[in-house]
Amino acid sequence: MLAIVDSGGANIASVRFALERLGVRSELTADPAVIRSAERVILPGVGSAVEGMKRLHAKGLVECVRGLTQPVLGVCLGMQLLFESSAEGPVDTLGLIPGRVALLPDSPGIQVPHMGWNTVQIAKPVALLDGIEAGARFYFVHSYAGPANEFTLASCTHGTAFAAIVQRGNFSGVQFHPERSGPAGARLLQNFVEGRA
Amino acid sequence: MLARRIIPCLDVRDGQVVKGTQFRDHEIVGDIIELAQRYRDEGADELVFYDITASSDGRTVSTDWVTRVARVLDIPFCVAGGIRSLAGARAILHSGADKISINSPALENPALITELATEFGSQCVVVGIDSRQENDGYFVKQYTGDPDKTRATRWGTVEWAREAQRLGAGEVVLNCMNQDGMRQGYDLAQLRLARAALTIPLVASGGAGTPAHFRDAFRDAGVDGALAASVFHKGTIKIPALKAQLIADGISIRP
Fold this sequence. Notes:
The complex is a heterodimer of chains A (about 200) and B (about 260).
Chain A: E1 2-5, H1 12-21, E2 26-29, H2 32-37, E3 40-43, H3 49-58, H4 62-66, E4 72-75, H5 77-80, E5 85-86, E6 100-103, E7 114-118, E8 121-122, E9 138-142, E10 144-145, E11 152-158, E12 160-168, E13 171-174, H6 182-193
Parallel strand pairs in A: 1-2, 1-3, 3-4, 4-13, 5-6
Antiparallel strand pairs in A: 6-10, 7-9, 8-11, 11-12, 12-13
Chain B: E1 5-13, E2 16-21, E3 24-31, H1 32-42, E4 47-51, H2 54-57, H3 64-72, E5 77-80, H4 86-94, E6 99-102, H5 104-108, H6 111-120, E7 125-134, E8 137-142, E9 151-156, H7 157-167, E10 171-176, H8 188-197, E11 202-205, H9 211-221, E12 225-228, H10 230-233, H11 239-248
Helix pairs in contact in B: 1-3, 8-9
């Protein structure tokens, strides 16, 4: 069973519907026991890091998520929460991946939020991208981003380079929205569900 | 490089997609789900659904069709129309919409922009601006869904766009009312003014008639997305051919 962590964020329905389209059964849950026993876990999230962590704390899920040993996929804010901290507010995030999430700087021609379809540059082999053509575009919509570092499997550039796909141990994260990235995003979710992560 | 977005706009009234000229005389174009899927298949980068009567009637969009759209669609979509509270926005976003767009309610209560951005993040919060050129200036209109209720505001267009950004908007859709439905091209002069005033994404709306109009908006006005309705609904412009032409013109586009 795949558990979607019900952290109260806004893109939960669309992640669930994307899995439905793949014929994958998922359970939306805030029950730590259910999450711990799931085969795989998706941590969605839209909104601010402060609100996101507040919701996880309120539901008693911070230690639960930190302690997971099965494959976990953070999506958008869910990925940003895997890092140690965020410039978005005075809050410690999950600390599963080293680094601090920062605001993307705007400049002429570089609008923030980074909103739309962009390509990723692969830094290390990415099983999540199996079967997806090089140069495929994914849908991004965010103002903050994690730093490109040794845990970055693929980066994206919008003025500056930032982490688009990260992985450390069983924790993976994607900054874009696979549930809204057409066939390429569907394939990425399929890869995660089938253990290619 | 980030791709410029082609955004079909579906005006929704009573669960059907409709289209009028200069915000009047609406005719039924088709079923929401069918059109959404067709545009997705043709390569639309994003869809916008405007419940055009909601704001002037004092209603909020119902969420059942939002859920139906979210179930089938694998590209992002934005919902607009009568959203005037955190609760209303939450209902739409939790039904599966990626963004919400507010227009008249933001003019009634600008603090709503900040409340929405704080709760859901700026990236979810689009401010739609209906702008009309009068004499030498551009001015913001309110309640444009119903011509009998449309009224002037105290805002100049660029001033309001800048204020919306300051309050936390993540994107501005600028509807140039003089051009709407006329197919004479986007209002490049107005879009350039707005582009220069904003650091958030700007979407052009109103006036698309040919592929060159899209090219001009991207290349000469620097907009991030271009929205159109009738040329897509009537098949005057096919999205695959439009995108092929824009790529040939050197615009960054998702094929």
